[in-house]
Amino acid sequence: MELKDVIGQSDLKQQLITMVQQNRLGHALLMVGKEGTGALPLAIAFAQWVVSQPVQNAHSNGIDLFGETAPPSSNNNWISPDEITTLPAFHRAIQFMHPDLHFSYPVIPKKSGDKPISTDYFTEWKEFVKLYPYGNVYDWLQFIGAENKQGNITAEECNDIMRKLNLKSFESAYKVLVLWMPEYLGKEGNKLLKLIEEPPANTLFILVAEQEDGVLPTIVSRCQVIRVPMIDKHDIENALVQKAGLAQTTAAQIAAVCEGNYREALQMIQDTAADWQSLLREWLNATLKAGPSMQLKFVEEIAKAGREKQKQFLRYFIHLLEESLHIRLLGTEALHYLPAEADFAQRLNKIASVSQQQAIVNELDNAIYYIERNANAKMLFMALTIKLQFIIQNKVTLHV
Description:
Strand order of the largest sheet: 2-3-4-1-5
Shape: elongated
Strand content: 5-15%
Helix content: 40-55%
Number of helices: 18
Distance between the termini: 48 Å
């Protein structure tokens, strides 16, 4: 995987490259990014670039990657991410065959009594990263048949990490370990503290986490923390068009509601046939014009849709309300796509003021929160319908 293949994150990619070129990288990085941000593919692409550097290039001006003294070099330039692709070492790295690039991740016992380590699942790992680079740990554990078993990074895995990283590099200037989901390190993770704090020469740790507070504080304190933001909406839209082959309008609709989470955007593709705008029009007509019988019909319909689709629908409504505000403040040129959305957003401005729209957004956010916690869909959407009717028709806002 090349850095350019990682969706969006252009500023962070450049930051990492600059840190390397200026020898300002810590021995241990903790990349923290929520699901769908691409923290794992970013870490892998970065590791593959670093480990593929020729020894004479990586120790520039007598200074190594970490700003420490290194043997003098005749070549003082790091090979750029674009140029590195021509080197045999890089081809070995992207095929997960480079001897100085190591991976660690949660695994399960293959049979009772096993003490598994990551290399037991290395074939599956390579396939998973290729097929689902934006997958989460649940996807991974299901991929290896965990079912209801709990994944773990075991004490045996920690021992194996220490063994591998204490070996001398085979061909690269650096040994690199990518450890995915350090949240799965229990007390066993303390075995790695001394290794992280006083690593063998030319060793780079890259830990990739979703939640910083889920990682042992003793490990966090020894790492250079790099936060991976949610992906920009337009980067997701472009990726859905170029990588997933979606039509521009469908990609724009999904990008607008996935909240920067590319994994969720891919999940939404299966629901692309859903016409959220028509569904929203039906709901508003039932709420403001048609009366209780049509409201009940809508509630019955949306209750059958399933939680994920319900959340997508409500997020789409929030997106249109945001676009309504943009139009109110900046005019229709504020919208970069989907003229039909601009028309719908303008209609929303006619039926609700800014304060009313904010009140509606608050109610929609609350509804999403309760859907995620298994609220009864019929009761939730009926209550939400009544609240929307009250907010819009009575020209008041609700205070909860």
